[in-house]
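Protocol step 4 of 6.
Sequence for Nudix hydrolase domain-containing protein (Candidatus Thiodiazotropha endoloripes) entered exactly as in the expression construct, tag removed. Do not edit the line below.
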Amino acid sequence: MRQASELIGLDANIRNAVRAVIVRDKAILMQKKWQQERGFWYTLPGGGQEVQESLTQALQRECEEEIGTSVVVDGLLAVADFYKQRRTEPPSSRHLIEFLFACSVPDDYRPGPGAHPDKHQIEVVWLPFAEFSQVELFPKSLEYDLQPVLQGEKPLYLGVID
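Step 5 output, structure tokens:
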């Protein structure tokens, strides 16, 4: 558990976020992002839950916006607390509760962005498990946090992820 001194600058509210874990042929569907100051990194599709929106409705909306397709939500895989660093003055972080859901896309789906891709999103790709250690994942612990989930251990509370 984080110490109070580490939480200084933490937003007072907690935001729910949903993520789609879409697995096919030993690869996970990921958003590839780029920013000049940071380079390339990969994230799961998903985002924040809106008021009066269920978690699965939020996941459907986010996937339509970011990966351009509807998904079948197969069930909750994991829940985690995540403290997202924000580029504010003074520096702050936001407390997110991340809900990771097993999902599937239509068999004929070809990776591509939706009508409202994420900021910095440049591509949607199938990232093979074998390449996880060779790229930057966000959050960084995703490679390790997903291992139990991918091996069928569910549901799982991941605790605080970095």
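Step 6, annotate. The chain is about 15% helix and 45% strand.
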